[in-house]
Every structure is written in C-alpha cells, then in structure tokens.
Specification:
The chain is about 20% helix and about 30% strand. The protein is of the alpha+beta class and about 250 residues long. A four-stranded antiparallel sheet has the order 1-2-3-4. Strands 5-6-7-8 form a four-stranded antiparallel sheet, with no helix packed on it. A two-stranded antiparallel sheet has the order 9-10. The relative contact order is 0.07.
Length: about 250
Amino acid sequence: MRGLDGEADGRRHDGEGDIDSGGGPGGDDRYGTGRRRHARTAKAASITAAAGLVAVGLSMAACSTGGTGSRDEGAAATKDVAAAAPTPSPPADGGQRSAERVDPIELLKADPKIGERFKADLKPCVADAYPVDASYGNLTDAPSPDVVVNVMTCGDAVGIGTYVYRKQSDTYENVFMAEDAAVYATIDRGELVVTKQVYAKGDPVAYPSGEDVITYRWAGNRFTQHDWVHNDYSRAVGDGEVTEPAPSELPVG
C-alpha cells in the first residue's frame, strides 16, 4: 500500500530533514523511521479492520434481503418492498353468491303442480307466520340460487311437503316435490338431501322408528337419486322401557 507506507503525510521519507525528536543518537532507529513505520502499520491495520467490518455488514445485509450478488447496497427501501408485494387476486367465478330472497308462500300458491286442497290448508299458525322454511343454494347450476321450500304442521312441526324451485328467466319453476308425511329437504354441498321419518305401527309422532336419507343430484334437467341411507332409532325412551314395533318395509327402487 504505497499510499499508507510511502506518502501518507505528503512527504517523502528518504532520511533528509525527518529526524524524530524521540530517537536519540544512541537509539536503534537513527532517523526515527521505526516508530513512524509502527504508527503507519497500526493505522493501516485499523483501516483494514474497518473495511472488513463494512464488507461483513454489506454481506449480511445482502443475505437478509435475499441478495443475489447484483444488489450490494443493503436492504431494499420500504416502498420497494411494498411495491413488490403481490396484489390479492379476485375470487374465482363460482364463489359465494348473494341469494335473491323470494316469498315462499307466493311460490307455493302460484305453483300449478300443487293441489288446490293443499293450498287451501296452507294457513298461518300465528298472525301472518306460516309454517314454512326456505333455503337458498346452488343445486341446478342455474345463474340464480335455487330455492328449497319445506312446509310443516303448526302443532308438531312435522314436514308434510318439500319443493325445489329453479329460476327460469323471470319466473321460478318447480323441479322437485315430495308430499309425504314427515319429509324435510336440505342443501348439502350442491346436493339435495331429503329426509323421511319412518313410523311403525304404534309410534308416537315425536318418536319415529327410523329415517330414510335420500340424496339427489341434478343431471340434465332433473334430479336423480344418488344415494340412500336408512337409520333405525333406538327404542329405549323415557324411563328406559324398550318397545319393539312392527318393522317397516323398505322402499323398493
């Protein structure tokens, strides 16, 4: 390093007019160059150490910011990180859709597939509260949510009819109906699940013997049966008395 050993103080040290006052005639270094060289060596060592620390700091900064060697000036600015953050993509088509609410009573009364006697018996239980449930969901891949309507009795809340309506243009079409005792339908992950309580002879309304769970899927322009499960309920009720009603017949087909 010529700048550190030869011309650090702007003068050439060739032995002329550069006598150190501390190096006497009897000293080992006649012209005092030994102590000056020692000072320059210490200064050079300190500069080299500082340069090493700076290099290590830059290397650590590059590693902490995922440096690849082309960026050595340290961590990226906050605005650079914010600009590099990915923008959340909008949800794909087929996600959550808002349900268009309809009046299930109007659907039932305007449905030509429902008998007039059934419509006449459809009355409020209290004031204008009808025993009717309505569910909305995607069953038929229509642009608008389908509507599942369940009609029950006022006293025991036992289902007496279930209907599925699919929107066609500006009207709703009845695409499924089951008018049986103790029937109720729900929407489960795009499938129509119909539950029918099974009563044996002597069963009270609150304690059926079992149930049939039938799953339907939309195929083409109608629902087709996909699965069927029958469950038998335990007969241990009340104080533990067990009764065995006559077995019911399983549905055929």
